[in-house]
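Internal QA ticket QA-208
Title: Verify multi-chain structure generation after dependency bump
Assignee: T.L.

Test input:
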Amino acid sequence: MQSERWTIGLGLFFVSATVLTLVVWIPTDIETGVIETFRRRTTIGDAMAPTLAAAAILVISMIMVVFAVLRARKNGGPPEPGPDRQGYKFLLLIAVPMVLGLVLMVYTGPLVVEAINAFGGEVGTYRQLKAAFPYKYLGYTMGGFVMVFGVIRVVENKITHSAAWVAALAVLALVLLYDVPFDNLLLPPNGDF
Amino acid sequence: MGILDHIWLGIVAVFTADPVFSLGSIPISITVTMVFFGFVLGVIVGATPGLGGPVAMAISLPILISIFGFEASALLPVLGFLVGIMKGSTIGGAVPAILFNTPGTPDSLMTTLDGYPMAQKGKAGKALRIAHFSSVSGDTFSDIVLITAAPSLAILVERFLDFPEKAALIILSLAFIASVVGSNVWKGLLSAMLGIFCAYIGTGEDGYPRLSLGTDGLANGLPLVSAVLGVLILGAIFEGLETMWREIKEKAAITTSEMSGDNKLHFSDIKTILPFIGVSAVIGTVVGALPGIGSTLAATLGYASGKKMHKGDPNFGEGAPEGVAATEAANSSVQGANLIPVLSLGIPGNVSAVFIILAMESIGGFNPGPQVFRLIPDQINSEMVIAFGLFTAMIFANGLNWTLGGIFMRSMGIMIRIPKQRLLPVILLLTLTSIYVQQTNMFAVYVTLMFGVIGYLMRKLDMSVLPFVIAFILANNLEEAMRQAFAVTGANPWFLFSSPVAIGFMLLALVVVIFFSRKRKIPGKQVFPESPMAS
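Actual output:
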C-alpha cells in the first residue's frame, strides 16, 4: 500500500469529511431543503448544490481509494511522495515570520497610539488616526518588514544586511505603490478600524 | 446595429476614449497607454525566472481597480493592461532560456534545447530574433482565429443551447479540465468538486447564508479573489520557497556567451522557419482552444512535430533555429485561442484567462458568455463593443510585439540576476497587500493564507489546483443554470438529460473521464503540466 499511501489517505480523509458534511453540516447549516415546494411551485433549494457536490466528492474519493488499492496490490513500488517531515518543518518555520508579521501589522498602530495616550499625548483613538501620517504606516511597515525579512531568513538560513535592505525597500515600494498615489486605498490593517 | 457597427465602436473606444496625453497632434487614449505599460511589464516578468504573466496580472488587478473604479469605462483600460501583460510575457520567457539555459516560463523549456546551443555558438542574437519572430507570428495567428471563432461559436451556443444544455456544458468543461490537467483524473475531479463546494459556502437564495456556521466572516461567502490568489499564487510561492529552502546551495555562476558572426534575421532564415511556425501555430491554437490544456503541452507537441519535419544540419537539440521557431510559435499561439472558451462560453481555460474573468467579474458590466455577441435590434450591445475593444487591444499589443518587442526582449537578459529566494517573499507581501487593498479587511488576508496552505498541500499531494480555481469561478453559474433548467423543464429532476444535446454533453463528460482515467499517469509527472506562476 506504500506506493499509493497518500492517494489512499487523501481518499479516506474526504470520505470521512463528506459523510460528516452530508449527515451533520448540510442538514444543520442550511435552512432550505434540496427541493422546495411553495404555493404549488417546486424549485431547487439551497441544499441541492452543496449536497450534489459533497455526494460527488464522496463517490470520487471512494473510486480513488478502490483504484489506488487495486494498483498498489498489483504493481507495488516505492512509497508515494507527498508531504514529509521536512515539509512540515518548513511550514512551521515559515509560519513564525508570517504570524509574527501579521500580529505586528494588526496591533502595532493601536498599541503605539494607546502608549502615547497613556503617557499623556492625547492623540485620540487609532480609528481617528488610521489615515494620518505616521500612524497609518506603523503596522504595515513593521509587520511587512518582519514578514519579508523573516521569510528570506528562513529560506537562506542566515541573517544578512542585504536581506534587511530588500525587506525595507520592498515595504517602502509597496507604500509608494498603494498608499501615496491613492486617497481611497487603505493599507492593512487600517480598513478594519 | 450590425456587427460592423459594433466592431467600429470597439476600435473607437480603444483608440479615442479618454485621451491622457498627445504625441504631437495625436491624442493617445488611456486604453492604448495601459496596453503599452502592461506589455512592458509582461516582457519584464516573462524574462524573470520564477515569475510570469499570471503573477503580474494577479497583483496588478487590485491596483488597476483602485485607479479605474468599478464603472464600465474601467473595463477596456484594465483588460488592455492585462492583455498587454499576457502578450509581453509570451516573448519574455525565451530570453533566459536562450541566454542562460534557464526557461523564464515553463513553456520555454523546449526553447533551451536549441536556443542555448545557438547562444553557445555565438548566435544568441539570431536565436532571440527567431524566437521573437516565431512567437509573434504564432500569437497573431491565434488572435485571428479567436476573433473569427469566438463570435461564431457564441452565436451557435446562444441559438442552440438552453439552460439544461448550458448546465451540461459547464459540467462537460469541468470534467474535461479536471481530466486533462494533472497526473490523476480522480484527483483532478476531486479538486474541481472541492472548488465547487467551497464556492457554495456563505451563498444561496435563502435569507440565511448556507454553510456559514453562523459566522459573520463566512456570511458573505469566501472571497473569490482570496480563493483564486491563495491557491494559485500563494500556494506556488510556498512550494517555491520550500524547494529553495531544501536545496540551500550556492547558485551556479551565470555564464554568458559572446555573440559572433552574423546574428541578423534574414529573409532566407524566415523562409526556412516559416513551415515550422505554421504547423506549430495551428497546434498551439487547437490546444489553446481546449480548456485546461496549457502552453507547455503545445510547446512539446510543436517541438515534436518540428523534429519530424526537420532535415539537415544542425539536428534538433544541437542548435537548430527551426527548433526555437517550432517551440516559440506553439507556446505563443495558445494565448489568443485560450480566450475562445472565455468569450464564447464564459468558461476560463487557463490561468491567464482566470485573471481576465476575475477582472470582468470584479468591475462588472461585462459577463463573458454567448450573450456577449447577441445583436439587439436598433440598440447597441455594450458587451459586444467591449469584446471588440478587447480584440482591438490584442491586435494593438501584437503590433507592439512586432515593432518594439524584439528590442525590449533583447535587453531583458539582466532579469536572470534577481535572486528568486528574495523575490518570492516580496511577491508574498505584495499579494497579501493587493488582497487587503481590494477587500479592506484582514479576514480576506487570513482566508487567502488559508487557501495558500491548501494550494501548497494540493501541490504536495499531486492534486492539480487549476480545476479547483475554475470550478470555484463557475460554481455559481452552474447552480444558476441548474435552477433555471429545473424551472423551465417543469421541475423535471432529469433536466440534465432532457434533450439530445444535453445528453450528448453528459455522455461526452463521462467518456472524457473514462478515457483519461484508463491510462495511468506517472505521479508527479503531469501529462499536460500547468503552471500557476506562468501562463
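Spot checks passed. DSSP finds 22 helices and two strands in chain B.
Status: verified.
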